[in-house]
Amino acid sequence: MKTMTCKQLWWACDVEFHAETFEQMATLSQEHAKEMMQTDDTDHLHAMSKMKELMKDPEAMWTWMQSKRDLFTSLPNN
Predict the structure, then answer these.
(1) Among 23, 35, 56, 71, which residue's CB has the most CB atoms within a 10 Å radius?
(2) What's residue 71's pLDDT?
(3) Which residues of 6-40 are buried (b: 16+ CB within 10 A; e: fewer)?
(4) What is the pLDDT of residue 11?
(5) Per-residue pLDDT for 14 more than 90?
(6) Overall average pLDDT of the 5-34 stretch
(7) Which stretches within 11-56 are classed as H helix?
(8) Which residues contact 60 (CB under 8 A, 6 or more apart)?
(9) From its phi and psi, is residue 34 left (phi > 0), alpha (psi between -120 and 50) or beta?
(10) Rounded CA separation 76/11 (Å)
């Protein structure tokens, strides 16, 4: 089990997620982001705006995703 924050993944807040795999971690953070966007949370809306820009460039998106996967891999198990 590893722990990452929303800020580590999407730049928005210090909420922690706990998961066994990077894919599980991504799913948890996406669910959180959706919830926060429904409340019009400014930090999460800003993060989503940055993500939309990143998604316009598939290579940049892949590089960003790989950096997050590498970060997850480097973290110690809890």
Answers:
(1) 71
(2) 96
(3) bebbbebbeeebebeebeebbebbeebbeebeeee
(4) 82
(5) yes
(6) 94
(7) 22-38, 42-55
(8) 54
(9) alpha
(10) 21
In one letter, which amino acid is 28?
L
Tokens representing 26? Answer: 């991504």
pLDDT digits over 28-72, tens only? 999 999 999 899 999 999 999 999 999 999 999 999 999 999 999
Integer Cα distance of 60 and 51 in angstroms: 11
CB 59 within 8 A of CB 69: no
Residue 71 tokens, joined: 């970060």
Q: Cα–Cα distance between 20 and 41 in angstroms, integer?
A: 28
Identity at 40, one-letter amino acid code? D
